[in-house]
Amino acid sequence: MYFVCATATVAQDAPKIAIIIDDLGNELRYGRELIQMPHQLTYAFLPHRPFTPRLANMAASAGKEVMLHLPMQSSQEVALGSNALTLELTQHQFQQIVRDSIEAVPHAKGVNNHMGSLLTRHPGHMAWLMEVLALQESGLYFVDSKTTSMTIAAQIAKEHFVPSVSRDVFIDADPEAEKIWAQLRRLNRIAEKKGYAVAIAHPYPSTVKILTEYLPLLKKLGIRLVPVTQIINLNPANRWPEYSSLSRPAAKN
To answer: How many domains, in total, are found in the chain?
Structure first.
């Protein structure tokens, strides 16, 4: 028994959590299984991957929220593929990759970084990213995955009037079952303390199995699972009507 269930219904003003499933698009089975769950998970797809369009369309058709999981340079030697954002790119190259990546993920409402422990430290490159997101007609939000404690990505998003939030918990940094359950308990505590929390997980078999057990418990725990958009809208400064494509230039000036 991992949780003590105290309530049977979930109030509208109950603590809220958003769970982002990262790294989708390379593999079909677990991506499809996660999308078919009867819960409002948020799905982050890598661009230009074999199953990204199919799974993103499937998620959108099921009424689920879709994100772009944007590869960014790490402080470690990690292969990210030919469409990753790196320090060596010119501004034109960098921003074209961002635009192409957005186009490659149908129905994306927002963006979060894949890797990025090096790139998210650099204000100039993060400004290039936010310039593109700020000009998207639909108003894309940004989630800082916080792959480094030195990230300034969320700060730069705020400066460019891009709605944003930062990750609170990595659910399965260690995919061992007891560690995942411990992180889920931590997620609940954070949400209860500040009213909301954002978690990131991955399409690992152990994660899929545990989420099928954990998510049905949320109603009895008095916690609401919501898409990332609803978490972002809890902060009035993040509301899109205040930062439309027409008002941003004037506000920045």
So the answer is: 1
